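This is your field. Have a critical look at the following sequence-structure pair:

***
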Amino acid sequence: MPVFAPHYAGPPPAYFGPRFAPGYSPYVAKKSNAGVIVAVAIVGIVALVGGLVAAVALVGGNTRHVADAGYSSTYPSDTSETTETTETTSSTEATTTSRTRTSERETPTSQTPRGPRSVAATGDNPLFGSPDFGLQNVPCSLSRWATDQSSATRFFQSGISCLDAMWSRMLGAVDLPFRTPHLAVPRSLSESSTPCGSGGTTTGVTPFYCPTNDTIYLPMDRIELETWGNHPGPYLSILAHEYGHHVQNLAGISEAYGNQRYDAGADSAAGLELSRRMELEAQCFSGMFLGSASVSGGSVDKNIYNEAWNAQDRGDDYARNGKRDHGSAKHNTFWWQHGATKNRNQQCNTWLSASADVS
């Protein structure tokens, strides 16, 4: 494990903000010790959360931190379209923007679907098959950030367009499936009922990814507008973290994780460590995206990158309930910055890391 990158955080927040909706857990209870074990796997009721809480100073004049960002990946680059900003109109009401799924192949229902399939595996997932594979440096064209709902929706959708351009190539290169996620930017989570629960059942405190309908939910009242204001970097890293959970779902990592955590017990020491590995990997994927996009000559410039770099001081250190399911602030910062400076899938493989590196 490389040495921890410098910690650029300011004072800790007064509270731990965005938390994961009711745990990323496609299971409903620990196994019973009596009789036949009935495994009730509720695959669709999971919500991966990665909201970004912050108490750090945004240092816009810092030098670039992408030490190894001259990387370009070795897999073929002619298999996906270039990224373009998708401008979508949105009302001031709760907004769901659904994008056309471009990479799924239609097949008759009577036949076994052809094409890439997910592989239910964590540390040995095909995503980590080559030490040279990382995200290609694709220029992003981001819509202008502003704190009103319509502008935020356009900004997040343009970010998804760029994430799609990078991750579709990566997943295609290792023969894993790809589809773009949907996006919902409601004024508040309580306005929307989702397959992963309503505002009440998901605790209503965080952005999250719902794998049941492939949707990233970014409620306006839960993305820390009062903290970050008009600085787009932190919001882009929140989006990239939730998109990282979408990548885990596409690859089959989520399925394997759910099975392993069920077997371990959701709130056992082993189960919580699995949750931390899942979350810290999404942190690393978020860093990979920002690091790659920032050297591509697009609209993810030095200031946006530095804002995101300085916004990762969050995690279980600030949890009110003391639950250790997201990783320490130090490790949240480290894994994001590690992804940003290395941009290699294998470097984000938290499943093979020592327990001390995902505490």
Remarks:
- The longest strand covers residues 182-184.
